[in-house]
Amino acid sequence: MQDLKLWGGIECTVARIGSEVRDQSRKTGHHARLDDLNRIAELGIRTLRYPVLWETVSPASPDLADFSWHDERLTRLRELGIRPIVTLCHHGSGPSYTSLTDPDFADLFAAHARRVAERYPEVTHYTPVNEPLTTARFSGLYGHWYPHGTSYRSFLRALVNECTATVLAMRAIREVRPDAQLVQTEDFGKTFSTPLLDYQARHENERRWLTFDLLCGQVRRDQPWWRILLDHGISEFELELFRAGDAAPDIIGINHYLTSERYLDQRLSRYPEHHWGGNGQHRYADAEAVRVPLPREQIGPAPRLREVWERYRRPIAVTEVHHGCTREEQLRWLVEVWNAARQVRSEGADIRAVTVWSLFGTVDWNSLLTRADGCYEPGPFDIRGPAPRRTALARAAQALAEHGHFDHPVLDRAGWWRRDVRFYRPPLVASNKCQLAGSPRRLLITGATGTLGQAFSCICALRGLDHVLVSRKEMDIADPASVAAALACHRPWAVINTAGYVRVADAERDPETCFRENAAGAEVLAKTCAEAGLPLLTFSSDLVFDGRAERAYIETDEVAPSCVYGASKAEAERRVLSVHPDALIIRTSAFFGPWDRYNFAFDVLRKLSIGEHVIAGIDKVSPTYVPDLVHGALDLLIDEETGIRHLANEGEISWHDFAVAVAERASFNKARVAAAADTPVLNTALSTAHGAILPVFESALDRFFADSKLDWTVDTSRVAAE
Fold first, then answer.
1. What's the pLDDT score for residue 459?
2. What is the per-residue DSSP string for 313-325?
3. Hey, how many other C-beta atoms are within 10 angstroms of the C-beta on 97?
4. Please, which pLDDT band fits residue 711 given cuts at 50, 70 and 90?
5. How far is it, in rounded angstroms, from Cα 597 to Cα 708?
6. How many helices (H) and strands (E) does the chain have?
7. Boundaries of CATH 3.20.20.80 in the chain?
8. Which contacts of 18-23 are long-range, i.e. CB under 8 A and separated by 24 or more positions?
9. Which whole-number Å values give the CA distances from 343 to 298, 370, 412, 416, 664, in the listed order?
10. CA proximity to 501, closest of 564, 586, 547, 425
11. What per-residue confidence (pLDDT) applies to 716?
12. Is 105 exposed, middle or buried (0-12, 13-18, 19+ CB in 10 A)?
């Protein structure tokens, strides 16, 4: 048996939502970037799930086909030595002249499959229809996608049409390429339940096999699903088509997600309302099984792989591994699935590959494409910049493709789905089993008494990142001996420096102390980290600019500080990069957060709540929400980014307008916020040449109020009538 392989995949869904078409290849920009294929090849990936979708080849008529885009891509894949697994329909309902419930769907689809095989006779592996059962549920039962059916009849009609299309497509393909192989994908997530809902769980657990039972000819007259299909409008003639089993998969593709396994519970109050639903007989919550204290050995990729192998005894590949979360959780999920595949393979199952998905990320999959919010989840590449940027997932993928293993300090802890933080109702006794082996490697964070240091400690704890937070007493960053002793004691895998002099006005009266803490201290810390081979993340400020450019600043703009504090930060940048060229320096601006009261937003709320007026300047800044800043900075650190990076919530706003926005969201009279007569108007707002990775300011302000959990309703007994 060959070694376990790493495959790759590109999220390529073309789905109809109402009258709109959502094309993921265009949303992620892959459609316009031929050199993406070179990037994939550089990871060592030699098998790639790739689209030649019906909707993009023949969008207007079944008699018209344009293969020009695909010709260029498949030629390049051949030149790169990458074998494509060609997908013909990916969560779609076909072009506008058909749908999943169209009686002619299968015949029309088979004609497209034949054209593809004739056009590309060198292609040997096909996935005609990706995830037929899942697509049928979302399109025919839940109404999310076209044709937006909401009945069991439309669900089963869509499923049978997709499976019939697969049979006819493979027959047509094999007339051109007799040795063509079917790589059939599906989500095999299992359903668990309370005893009351066991009947519903058993039904769903039998239903999940329908795609493969139909294709393998295992739905027979003496089985319950034969009668269920007949009762919902499927004819015996249609079912007889599957009896030959000539479209039994050559490779079973398992698409497994953290949301794949479900738990049904009639105790609705235990779960958020968006999980509430029912079946007409009982009302119940349908929640992620990982959020319920089930026995560990029952859930996860390994038990699902074993089930599939025991049922079908056919070669298996995990054909999608993706997690839209923080970077270390993405790494943890990929490695967990890889290790599960290796484990089950060692038990005798024929598991061929694991597929890293999606290489260039996804857009709006957090809402199953039902909303066009532009919510982007990166993969091995982050496309939010002039060119796709390699993330830590790319390093992991390359290591797995070339060596079969990958190590990183963040892997010393299990993912959130294995930690107690996952539960909707925390267990009475904490499991405390999230450490995987040995002593976990740690981050060292300076600035224990500061806003940013405290925020890093809080979020690292949430993300399962072991760390130690030190004060100046424990490590004086301006003292080489103190720094060396702390590094020797804590042995961190990286250092995050949030320490420094932050009192901008006071710095004008005490420049010596400001420069010692901000510039000299940063240099000492950077030099010691460089000598120890440690990554360093440190922070700078928008005040390295004088604000006279009349636009937001990017990283390549020349610094020109107009105050002592800004000058100390500019000098710190110069010194740090001179002694540690691989350090990451993040410039940020006007940060505000929910966990302390020492920021502009809280000051505005405090004054308005006691009846005072607020006078705010009209200089422009980029207010930055501290949790967003910390999450983004940690992702960049794990990605091993270096150099200067601007990190602020998107948008530029004056201090006055910032105060007005705070007042409006707290239901205070915005007329009590006045603008100071600042002249000239300065603009130290930050933009970036690398692609913005933080949400927009408006979103950040909404979350500030939600996360602060404070009631700022006006007390009319204390505030004069306005």
1. 97
2. ---EEEEEE---S
3. 13
4. low
5. 10
6. 24, 30
7. 9-186+203-256+294-399
8. 18/146, 18/148, 20/372, 21/55, 22/364, 22/369, 22/372, 23/56
9. 15, 37, 19, 21, 56
10. 564
11. 37
12. buried
Q: How many angstroms separate the CA atoms of 517 and 568, rounded?
A: 9
Q: Has domain 443-708 been given CATH number 3.40.50.720?
A: yes
Burial class (CB in 10 A: 0-12, 13-18, 19+), 719: middle
Rounded distance, CA 215 to CA 182, Å? 11
Beta strands 47-51; 5-9: pairing state: parallel
Residue 89 contacts residue 128 (beta carbons within 8 Å): yes
CATH number of the structural domain 9-186+203-256+294-399: 3.20.20.80
**Residue appearing with tokens 């034949």:** 114
Alpha carbon distance 662, 697 (integer Å): 12
- Tokens representing 183? 């790589």
What radius of gyration, in Å, describes the C-alpha atoms of the chain?
28
Question: Which residue, chain included where needed, has tokens 């150099």?
Answer: 643
Buried b (16+ CB within 10 A) or exposed e, 219-251: beeeeebeebbeeeebeeebbebbeeeebbbbb
| Contact between 310 and 245 (Cβ < 8 Å) | no
Pairwise CA distance, residues 3 & 367, whole Å? 36
For residue 401, give both structure tokens. 């493709």
Residue 70's Cα: distance from chain center in Å?
27
Q: What is the pTM of this model?
A: 0.95
pLDDT tens track for 262-292: 999 999 999 999 999 999 999 999 999 999 9
Give residue-wise pLDDT tens across range 481-492.
999 999 999 999
Element (H, E) at 494: strand 494-497
Task: Give dist(CA 61, CA 83) in Å, integer.
Answer: 29
Query: CATH 3.40.50.720 in the chain, residues?
Result: 443-708
Q: How many residues are recorded in the chain? A: 722
- Taking the C-alpha atoms of residue 331 and residue 407, their distance in angstroms, rounded to an integer, is 10
Residues in contact with 52: Cβ distance below 8 Å, sequence separation at least 6, in sequence order: 67, 70, 74, 86, 87, 88, 116, 120
CA distance 448 to 446: 6
What is the rounded CA–CA span in Å between residue 318 and residue 325? 20
Residue 493 DSSP symbol: S
Dihedral (Cα; 176, 177, 178, 179), 10-degree rounding: -170
Cα 677 to Cα 306, 590, 656, 674, distances in angstroms: 71, 20, 11, 9
| DSSP calls for 202-267 | HHHHHHTTHHHHHHTT---TTSHHHHHHHHTT--HHHHHTTTT-TT--SEEEEE--TTSSEEEES-
Query: Does the pLDDT of residue 213 top 60, yes or no?
Result: yes
Half-sphere exposure of 51 (CA within 13 A, CB side): 23
Cα–Cα distance measured from residue 221 to residue 236, given in angstroms and rounded to the nearest whole number: 9
Which tokens belong to 675? Answer: 């603008």
In whole angstroms, give the CA distance from residue 112 to residue 92.
Answer: 14
Helix (H/G/I), strand (E/B), else coil: 30: helix
> Does the structure show a pLDDT above 70 at 357?
yes
Neighbours of 710 (CB within 10 A): 12
pLDDT digits (tens, 9 = 90+) for 592-606: 999 888 899 999 999
- What does the alpha-carbon distance between residue 175 and residue 10 come to, in Å, rounded to a whole number? 28
Pinpoint the alpha helices (H) of 404-520: 451-462, 480-490, 504-507, 511-515
Residue 563 has φ and ψ, to the nearest 5°, of -145, 165
Torsion of CA 173, 178, 179, 180, to 10 degrees: 0
Partners of residue 191 on adjacent β-strands: 262
